[in-house]
Amino acid sequence: MYYSSESVEELIEQLCRLPTIGRKSAQRLAAHVLKMPRSDVKQLAEALVAVKDRVRACRICKNVTDADTCALCLSTRRDHGLVCVVEESSDVVALERTGEYNGVYHVLGGAVSPVDGIGPDDLTFGDLVNRVAPDPKNPEAPKIREVIVAVNPTVEGDVTAHYLREFLAPYVSVTRVAHGLPIGADLSFADEATLARALAGRRPL
Ligand SMILES: [Zn+2]
How many angstroms separate the alpha carbon of residue 29 from the centre of ligand 1? Predict the structure, then answer.
């Protein structure tokens, strides 16, 4: 069944390209958009374009930000000697929700996956090593004491953790959040209590 409007078909086709949106959901969303006031549709379209135009990676932690450096990296109330490494920005949101973590973060931008041809060079490993390794030009720079690996408990997460240990162990103590997170799960979907427990029970990697 196709719509008698090319514009509606085009909208459905574009919506179908988003993850978790099948044709049925796309049809429902398109029907909703048709009923929305023009001003609301314009706001939605502008928000979509704005994330591409304005959002960039934080200079230090590679988390999403509208500025050069994100608010977490700029905060003087956080412990900058403790860095939690996660796969995606959504994991930062999940860990912040626990209210149990007071360090800073590093966002890898994914996990190492040899099957998909994704190696450490395709992620922000290099930036992390630069953060952690002592800088001879700047010996006064704040020293990082511990890196907490909080990647997803998946095969890719395990491979990523292995690489992180290889890259970082010469410079810093590396720990990994405790298991107890469901295997194969996405960290950002874990509830706050489980995440807080995993964080408190971290072990040397
Ligand atoms: Zn940052």
Answer: 34
